[in-house]
């Protein structure tokens, strides 16, 4: 997960466009959501979610503070399959869009 703060709507749109372009060109990845018209936008690439938000939103929600009090969970090495209870659901785009 990546968090990015911007100072204006044009800067937010430019950051979104740059991330989308880089993901497509360098990693052949397309986002899995539709960008709206909000001061907080998310680009969801499945294994990586990028949050681009106005500085006001970033200060108000203070998402990073959650990590200071979060419980640390040990995960298996990447070579090992995740236990079934930790595996993400296998949704189709249609199912995800209906949420």
TrEMBL record:
InterPro entries named in the record: Iojap/RsfS/C7orf30, NT_sf
GO terms assigned for molecular function: ribosomal large subunit binding
Coiled coil (residue ranges): none
A Pfam match: RsfS
SUPFAM superfamilies associated with the record: Nucleotidyltransferase (SSF81301)
Sequence segments annotated as region (Disordered): 78-99
Source taxon at top rank: Eukaryota
Gene Ontology BP annotations: negative regulation of ribosome biogenesis; negative regulation of translation
Family assignment from sequence similarity: Belongs to the Iojap/RsfS family.
Protein name listed in UniProt: Ribosome silencing factor
Gene source species: Chlamydomonas eustigma
């Amino acid at each position: 997960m990546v968090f990015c703060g911007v100072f204006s709507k044009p800067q937010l749109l430019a950051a979104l466009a740059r991330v989308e372009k880089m993901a497509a060109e360098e990693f052949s990845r397309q986002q899995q959501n539709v960008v709206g018209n909000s001061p907080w936008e998310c680009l969801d690439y499945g294994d990586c979610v990028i949050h681009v938000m106005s500085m006001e939103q970033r200060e108000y929600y203070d998402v990073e503070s959650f990590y200071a009090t979060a419980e640390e969970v040990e995960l298996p090495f990447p070579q090992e399959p995740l236990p079934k209870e930790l595996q993400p659901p296998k949704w189709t785009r249609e199912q995800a869009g209906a949420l």
